C-alpha cells in the first residue's frame, strides 16, 4: 500500500504521475474552487466583451445584420473625421473644465478648513459626505426642480436679485454650467480622501513649525498643501478619467440636450448603439474612449511612480 | 512675567498653549463660520428635496420659492335641504344630495388650485340634522381624477354623468334620520372661504343651498405627496406600488452582496493564501487590469451577450454582469494578506480543510472588510442606473432609480412635482439610514475606493 499516493502501470514500473505531482494537484483543488467563479465571470463579462467590442469596431455591424461588411479601420477614420465626434469631445472637455472650476477644489478647501476645527470635526465631515448617501438619481431630480424654468429655485433667486429668468438646463449656452455648478456646494467622497490625507501628515511636523513661529497661514500654504499635493495630483487625473465617462448625471438632467449642447462621448456611444442600432460605430467610439482613458491612466501611473505612492 | 508664563506652561506638554496664539483663534473662529455656511450649502439640496415633498401644487411652483411649506387646510362645505325637501320624492332627493356632494368635493378641488387644499368635506343638512357627508382628500383626487375624467376641466354635467364612480372614493355616508355627527367647521372668514363661496354662486349649481364654508388647518394632509407617490405606479401599471421597487432593489442588492462576499472573497483569499507568489501576481493583474477598462467600452458587447443569454429584462441580467468586482477582490486580498499566517496554519494542522479555514477562521477574522464590502455594494447597486436602464424594461422589474427616472417625465406638471420628489425621498431612505448607522465603516471604504478611482 506504499503506492497509495501515486498511480502506476504495474509493480516495479515508474509511476505515471508522481506522488508529488498528485499532492500538488490535490493542494491546487481548493485554489481552483475559490478562483474559478471569479475567473469565469471576469472572462465572460469583462475580457470577452472587451475583445468583442474591438472586433465589432472593425465591422459595419448593424444590430439587425451582424457582423456585416468588414471595414478595417474605416469606422475609426469615419469617427475621427466627423465633426460630431469632436463636438462631443469638446463638450466632454468643457464639462471637465467646469468641473475643475466649480467642483474640484471644493473638497480640498473644505478639508483644510475642517482641519482647523477642534470640536465638531466628525459632525461637519458627516454632513459634508451625506449627499453620497442620497441616490444620485434622487439628487439630480432635486436639481432638475431647482433649475425648473418656472417655479425653480434658480429663477426665484434671479428674480429676487431683479434679474430676468433664464432657461438654465434648457438653454444651450448655460446647460454645461448648470451641470457642474452643483459641485460648488460640495458633497462627495473627495472630502474623506483629503481629510484622511491631512491627518496622515505627522503632528510633529506641524508642531515643529509652530515652535518655529509659523503662523496659521504658513501652516496651510507651506506644510499642509505641499504634503497633500500628491493626492491632489492623483485625484485630478482620476477626475479627468471619470469626466471622460460622464453619462449618468447628464443623461438624467438633459439627455444630452438641448440639441447636442450637453452630449458627452458616452452619450454618443449610447445614441449610436442603442438609438441608431449601429453597434459597429458605437463600439468604435467606445474603443476611442478606452484609448483616451488608458492614456490618462498611464499618466496617472507615471505620476504615482514619481511621487512614490 | 512672560518668561514665567512659558515656564509654567512647559510641563503641560505645551501643545495647547503653543497653538492658541491670537491669529490661531481668529483663524479657527473663521473656519467654524466657513464650515457652518458651507455645510449648509452641501446639505441644502437634501433639505430642498425633503421640504419639497411637503409642498402642495400651489407652493411647489410659487415665486418667490417657498422655503417652509405652508400648512394645508381642510374645508368643510355645508349644504342645506330643508327648503327643497318638502316637494321632492325620496329618490329624487337622494340623487340630488349625492350629486351635490360630488360636485362640492370634486369640482371645488378641481377649480381651486390657488389655495392650500388638503381635504374637502361636504355635508348635507336638513335644518339642524345632518343627513349625509363625503370627504375627498387631495391625494385621492390626484390618484383618481385622471382615471375618472380624462378632460382638462370638470363641469357639473361631467361629474353628474359619473356620479357612482365619483363617490367610489369619497366615502359617502347617508342617514336620512339625521344621526351623523357634524364635522368641524373652523374659520369662516378667510380669503379661501370667500373664494369657495363665490364658486357656488357662479360655477357650481347645486339643488341644496350653501349654508356655510369653513377652513381649518389639517396637518395630516402634509403627507399627501407621499401617499400619492406610493400609489403613483399603480396609475400606469395596475398592481404595482412602490413596495415592488423596494423588493426589486433588495433582491438585486442582496444578491450582489452575497456574490461579492463569496466569489470576490474567495478569490481574494486564494490570491493571498493559496497560490504561489508568481501565479498570485499574475492573477492579481488579471483581475485588476479590468479596472482600467471603462464600462462604456464593454457596454455594447455586454448588452449583446446578455441578450444572447436570454437575460434581458430579468434580475439575472443585472446581477451576473456585476459579479466581476476587481476592487472588492483587491480589498479582500489586502485584508487576508494582513492576517497572521500562524493561525491559518494552526487550523490546517488541526486537519481543517481550506474551505473550513476560509469560512471559520479567515472570514470571521476579517469581519471589517466584509462589512465594508457589503455597505459599498449596497450603495453602488441601490444607486445603479445606467445598466438597469438598459436591461430592465418591464415596470414591475424596475429598481428605484429607474422608477424615479421615469417619474421625472411627469415633473413638467406642477401637480405631480411634489409627489415625484416624494418618490425620491422614499428611495433615499434606505441609503440614508444605512449611511447614518454605518457612517464610520462606509467612510473608511469610500476612502479606499476613492483613491483607486
* Count of helical stretches of chain A: 13
Shape of chain A: flat
CATH class value of the largest domain in chain A: Mainly Alpha
Supply the CATH superfamily name of the largest domain in chain A: MetI-like
- At CATH level 2, the architecture of the largest domain in chain A is Orthogonal Bundle
Nearest-integer average pLDDT of chain B: 83
How would you spell out the order of helices and strands of chain A?
HHHHHHHHHHHHH
Task: State the helix count of chain B.
Answer: 22
> Can you give the helix content of chain A as a percent range?
55-70%
What's the gyration radius of chain B in Å? 32 Å
Unreliable spans of chain B are 1-17
Name the CATH homologous superfamily of the largest domain in chain B. Answer: MetI-like
Largest beta-sheet characterization of chain A: none
Percent strand of chain A: under 5%
Total domains of chain B, how many?
3
Order of helices and strands of chain B: HHHHEHEEHHHEHEHHHHHHHHHHHHH
Layout of helices and strands:
The complex is a heterodimer of chains A (309) and B (453).
Chain A lengths: L18 H38 L17 H8 L1 H33 L5 H9 L6 H11 L6 H8 L14 H6 L9 H11 L2 H9 L4 H29 L3 H6 L11 H11 L3 H28 L3
Chain B lengths: L1 H8 L5 H5 L2 H31 L4 H4 L12 E8 L9 H22 L5 E10 L2 E9 H11 L7 H6 L1 H4 L6 E2 L16 H12 L6 E9 L6 H13 L5 H33 L2 H12 L6 H14 L6 H5 L6 H13 L2 H9 L4 H12 L1 H16 L3 H6 L8 H8 L6 H24 L1 H14 L1
Amino acid at each position: 500500500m506504499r503506492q497509495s499516493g501515486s498511480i502506476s502501470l504495474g509493480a516495479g514500473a515508474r509511476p505515471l504521475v508522481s506522488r508529488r505531482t498528485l499532492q500538488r494537484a490535490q493542494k491546487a483543488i481548493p485554489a481552483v474552487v475559490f478562483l474559478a467563479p471569479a475567473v469565469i465571470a471576469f472572462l465572460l463579462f469583462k475580457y470577452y466583451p472587451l475583445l468583442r467590442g474591438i472586433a465589432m469596431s472593425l465591422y459595419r455591424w448593424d444590430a439587425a445584420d451582424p457582423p456585416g461588411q468588414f471595414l478595417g479601420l474605416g469606422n475609426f477614420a469615419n469617427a475621427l473625421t466627423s465633426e460630431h465626434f469632436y463636438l462631443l469631445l469638446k463638450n466632454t472637455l468643457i464639462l471637465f473644465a467646469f468641473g475643475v472650476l466649480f467642483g474640484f477644489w471644493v473638497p480640498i478647501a473644505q478639508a483644510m478648513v475642517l482641519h482647523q476645527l477642534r470640536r465638531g470635526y466628525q459632525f461637519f465631515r458627516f454632513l459634508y459626505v451625506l449627499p453620497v448617501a442620497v441616490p444620485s438619481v434622487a439628487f439630480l431630480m432635486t436639481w432638475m426642480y431647482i433649475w425648473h424654468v418656472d417655479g425653480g429655485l434658480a429663477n426665484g433667486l434671479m428674480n429676487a436679485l431683479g434679474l430676468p429668468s433664464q432657461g438654465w438646463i434648457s438653454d444651450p449656452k448655460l446647460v454645461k454650467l448648470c451641470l457642474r455648478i452643483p459641485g460648488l456646494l460640495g458633497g462627495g467622497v473627495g472630502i474623506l480622501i483629503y481629510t484622511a490625507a491631512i491627518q496622515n501628515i505627522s503632528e510633529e511636523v506641524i508642531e515643529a513649525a509652530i515652535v518655529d513661529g509659523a503662523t496659521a497661514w504658513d501652516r496651510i500654504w507651506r506644510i499642509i498643501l505641499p504634503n497633500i499635493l500628491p493626492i491632489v495630483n492623483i485625484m485630478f487625473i482620476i477626475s479627468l478619467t471619470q469626466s471622460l465617462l460622464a453619462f449618468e448625471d447628464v443623461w438624467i438632467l438633459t439627455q444630452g440636450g438641448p440639441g447636442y449642447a450637453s452630449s458627452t462621448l458616452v452619450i454618443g456611444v449610447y445614441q449610436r448603439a442603442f438609438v441608431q442600432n449601429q453597434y459597429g460605430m458605437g463600439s468604435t467610439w467606445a474603443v476611442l474612449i478606452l484609448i483616451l482613458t488608458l492614456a490618462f491612466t498611464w499618466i496617472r501611473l507615471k505620476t504615482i511612480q514619481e511621487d512614490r505612492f | 512675567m512672560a518668561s514665567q508664563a512659558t515656564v509654567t506652561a512647559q510641563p503641560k506638554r505645551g501643545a495647547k498653549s503653543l497653538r492658541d496664539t491670537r491669529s490661531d483663534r481668529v483663524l479657527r473662529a473663521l473656519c467654524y463660520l466657513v464650515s457652518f455656511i458651507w455645510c449648509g450649502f452641501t446639505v441644502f439640496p437634501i433639505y430642498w428635496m425633503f421640504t419639497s415633498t411637503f409642498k402642495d401644487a400651489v407652493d411647489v411652483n410659487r415665486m418667490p420659492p417657498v422655503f417652509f411649506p405652508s400648512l394645508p387646510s381642510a374645508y368643510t362645505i355645508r349644504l342645506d335641504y330643508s327648503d327643497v325637501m318638502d316637494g321632492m320624492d325620496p329618490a329624487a332627493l337622494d340623487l340630488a344630495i349625492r350629486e351635490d356632494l360630488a360636485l362640492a368635493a370634486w369640482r371645488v378641488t378641481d377649480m381651486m388650485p390657488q389655495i392650500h387644499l388638503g381635504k374637502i368635506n361636504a355635508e348635507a343638512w336638513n335644518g339642524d340634522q345632518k343627513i349625509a357627508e363625503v370627504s375627498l382628500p387631495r391625494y385621492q383626487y390626484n390618484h383618481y381624477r385622471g382615471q375618472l375624467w380624462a378632460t382638462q376641466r370638470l363641469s357639473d354635467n361631467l361629474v353628474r354623468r359619473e356620479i357612482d364612480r365619483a363617490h367610489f372614493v369619497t366615502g359617502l355616508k347617508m342617514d336620512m334620520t339625521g344621526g351623523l355627527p357634524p364635522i368641524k367647521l373652523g374659520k369662516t372668514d378667510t380669503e379661501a372661504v370667500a373664494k369657495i363661496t363665490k364658486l357656488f354662486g357662479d360655477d357650481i349649481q347645486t339643488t341644496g343651498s350653501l349654508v356655510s364654508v369653513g377652513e381649518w388647518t389639517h396637518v395630516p394632509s402634509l403627507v399627501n405627496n407621499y401617499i400619492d407617490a406610493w400609489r403613483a405606479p399603480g396609475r400606469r401599471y395596475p398592481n404595482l406600488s412602490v413596495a415592488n421597487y423596494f423588493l426589486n432593489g433588495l433582491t438585486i442588492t442582496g444578491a450582489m452582496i452575497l456574490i461579492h462576499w463569496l466569489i470576490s472573497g474567495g478569490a481574494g483569499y486564494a490570491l493571498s493564501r493559496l497560490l504561489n507568489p508568481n501565479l498570485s501576481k499574475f492573477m492579481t493583474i488579471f483581475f485588476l487590469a479590468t479596472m482600467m477598462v471603462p464600462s462604456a467600452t464593454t457596454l455594447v458587447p455586454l448588452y449583446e451577450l446578455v441578450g444572447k443569454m436570454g437575460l434581458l429584462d430579468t434580475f439575472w441580467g443585472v446581477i451576473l454582469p456585476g459579479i466581476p468586482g476587481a476592487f472588492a477582490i483587491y480589498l479582500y486580498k489586502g485584508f487576508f494578506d494582513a492576517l497572521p499566517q500562524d493561525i491559518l496554519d494552526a487550523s490546517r494542522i488541526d486537519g481543517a480543510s481550506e474551505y473550513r479555514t476560509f469560512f471559520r477562521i479567515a472570514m470571521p477574522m476579517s469581519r471589517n472588510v466584509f462589512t465594508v464590502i457589503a455597505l459599498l455594494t449596497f450603495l453602488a447597486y441601490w444607486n445603479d442606473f445606467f445598466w438597469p436602464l438598459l436591461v430592465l424594461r418591464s415596470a414591475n422589474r424596475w429598481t428605484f432609480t429607474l422608477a424615479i427616472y421615469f417619474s421625472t417625465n411627469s415633473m413638467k406638471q406642477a401637480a405631480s412635482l411634489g409627489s415625484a420628489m416624494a418618490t425620491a425621498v422614499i428611495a433615499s431612505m434606505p441609503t440614508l439610514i444605512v449611511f447614518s448607522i454605518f457612517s464610520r465603516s462606509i467612510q473608511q471604504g469610500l476612502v479606499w475606493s476613492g483613491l483607486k478611482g
